[in-house]
């Protein structure tokens, strides 16, 4: 069932130029996505320079991911209330200033605090990009817009590790943060000039919902992220990893019950899920977030520990994926606007699952690199066909006054999927290493990874472990594939484009 749309707010104003506005938003979106991956390359340098330990330096990434994921429901809704442009600009300013702060810190504790502010800035920005696309593009053009949005995510996964390697080697780890300053300033002024001020909607703020959603997501995400560190057992005193996860689930259940009972205006309008495509798209994007995050760990570990590639050269393995994904973006975007989404998204998810199954079969200590590039190229095809139809399908039927809320839900499920993927693949890799290399304990580092390329005697067992781990994200993607195949065709495919879309098309 489609959500009835509020026709007063669904019209695209003729004076709005959507494509320049989208390019301005994409610059900031690209920056925060690059920042999600660039820090991993600099972790060893940060560890050494700030005299930290592994357990503490992990929080440089964990603090960012937590501060990014937990507020997304709230910031999505807040964008509807105060305006997506204002919240996006505020988030971009916070992110840029926090980036400079990160580069200037001289202690690991201050770096972690600065990363929290970076994550908060990113959480303000991300839902607004989708909300603005929903509100300034007519339905028959959103596919192309979402395709650019998705291609940005694909290219960022490549640029982050490569740029990180170059900056750390040439200028020092501080520059992975300083580089955000000029990009952030340019992005701020472009968005200030090109992104339109959209009508706001008077929303009562659901304070109980805010507290419950933030607490539940924090407990769940923190428990999952830190589970591997504490061996899924006790953290301190009576607090355990599973206790936090269960508490998070219980609090989120209480949040959903409160949203259903709230007679005023809930933080999360459960009516959004009456739209079949919105619900299914959230299932699918959760599996995509899980799989893309999970796939990177065994692939990069294998490239460095077994093949002896540097972090930068390992990242270059992903070049075919990024190039093909970017090249397909315009074609797929036009296709999304004209074709039922279940065919396009289903094809993309099938390619993604197939590429990971394929990789699990070819990863061997002495496999020619070109044979590995073939499934990675197929992953590029998958990226080209997944992101745009899923994002477009999730937001197509949203009423304009709930665009931010819907975008917040969509991005929250994607981030939670990514956290689940990160935690699950870590557990599986350790399990497979213990099985295939029983004489080695302690996971990848115990196998000698921390000292560089592995000895020849253990390369086969390590390769087998990484290959077997890749089966998990492939299987999870099959759930997303089923969800995508259940999409229903949007109504605009049976109608001619409205007059309202003509000015936007011209721009």
UniProtKB/TrEMBL annotation:
Gene3D superfamilies: MFS general substrate transporter like domains, Multidrug resistance protein D
Keyword entries, A-Z: Cell membrane, Membrane, Transmembrane, Transmembrane helix, Transport
Localization of this protein: Cell membrane
Keyword Hydrolase part of the UniProt annotation: no
Membrane spanning residue stretches: 21-42, 54-75, 87-106, 112-133, 145-167, 173-195, 207-224, 239-258, 279-303, 315-336, 343-363, 369-390, 469-489
Residues annotated as domain Major facilitator superfamily (MFS) profile: 21-492
InterPro entries: EmrB-like, MFS, MFS_dom, MFS_trans_sf
Superkingdom of the source species: Bacteria
Topology of this chain in the membrane: Multi-pass membrane protein
NCBIfam families: efflux_EmrB (TIGR00711)
Alphabetized PANTHER family for the sequence: EXPORT PROTEIN, MAJOR FACILITATOR SUPERFAMILY MULTIDRUG TRANSPORTER MFSC
Protein name as it appears in the record: EmrB/QacA subfamily drug resistance transporter
Classification lineage: Bacteria, Bacillati, Actinomycetota, Actinomycetes, Propionibacteriales
